[in-house]
Amino acid sequence: TGGGTLRAARGHARRVDDVARACERNVRALFVTLKSLVPGLVRRPSSFIAAMASQEAWGGGAAGAGVFAASKSAVAALLRSLDRELDATTVEICIAFPMGRVDTESNRRKPVDDGRGVIEPRAIGDALVGAALMHGGGRLRELPIYPPRSARRPS
Length: 155
Fold this sequence. Notes:
By secondary structure, the protein is of the alpha/beta class. The chain has helices at residues 16-41, 55-59, 66-85, 105-109, 121-133, and strands spanning 47-52, 91-98, 142-145. It contains 5 helices and 3 strands; from the N terminus they run αβααβααβ. Residues 1-11 have low confidence and may be disordered.
């Protein structure tokens, strides 16, 4: 879901309908999933919810990515609010913030060589498993995940 605000940047929002599509894919889909799962999760001895926001939700949108930034910021706000609602439960919530491009099929179709490298999905999964398995002395609620230092591309 590209997300330009006022200008038609490469592959970004060009119409008002793009706003609805970005919110449908990012916010509504998460809301419907949470509405279905949370009642059962609060009855379990412990539970873990993880969802993806974006670097734009962490620190502001890039030029031309305003709609995407707004929808992913709404995802983060929804999860932060839910975390407060579930304060008296054993449900843990972690918001992953990929701080760069994630190696996905969609992103491979629109290559951008910014020299920063890409984040492999496995790295995000490993980080979330680590957050889920954290016991006792703390918890990870917000987890920024950065591209590798080298600009190498996954094969």
